[in-house]
Amino acid sequence: MKFIISGKNLDVTDGLKAAIEEKIGKLERYFTPETEVHVTLSVEKERQKIEITIPMKGNIVRAEQVSDDMYVSIDLVEEVIERQLRKYKNKLVDRQQSAASLSKAFIEEEIEEDDEIKIIRSKKFGMKPMDPEEACIQMDLLGHNFYVFRNAATDEVNVVYKRKGNTFGLIEPEF
After folding, report:
1. Cα–Cα distance measured from residue 22 to residue 165, given in angstroms and rounded to the nearest whole number
2. pLDDT of 136-150, one tens digit each?
3. Helix intervals (H) in the chain
4. 52 dihedral zone (left: phi>0; alpha: psi -120 to 50; beta)
5. What is the mean pLDDT of the chain?
6. pTM summary value
7. CA angle 27, 70, 44 (to 5 degrees)
């Protein structure tokens, strides 16, 4: 695994690099040696945050953890990534293509499925064209965290969602 470590509002010390490479390096058995692991460490007030992104062919494995100690955050994020990888491995349909970044030993390893995805509700609704600001207002009126709509400017299906800090996000898919 190739680590790309960066810091926001903090200097990445040799101790932090060593802790990341040791802890996240335990996941090495899941990946091929060429797999890149992007690690971003940041500090906001008392919050010590680590974000890990592992681009894989057609997918991205991503996790972030926040605590008051960066070393605790590193420990927590490693567990989250490992759990995600086990779930992802069980969901692979085309193992050769989708699993290009995963090691052969991990793919062949048998893992019991612990969390089966169950869709318990399906919903259909008409979508009138609107702008993202109008979609945000509609989302607030409904009391939801996200809202799917047809963008009047692009005639594409978009999603607006609530973010931390009372801000909004817009998802515009690329085809």
Report:
1. 34
2. 988 888 788 999 999
3. 14-25, 70-91, 95-98, 104-108, 132-142
4. beta
5. 82
6. 0.55
7. 125
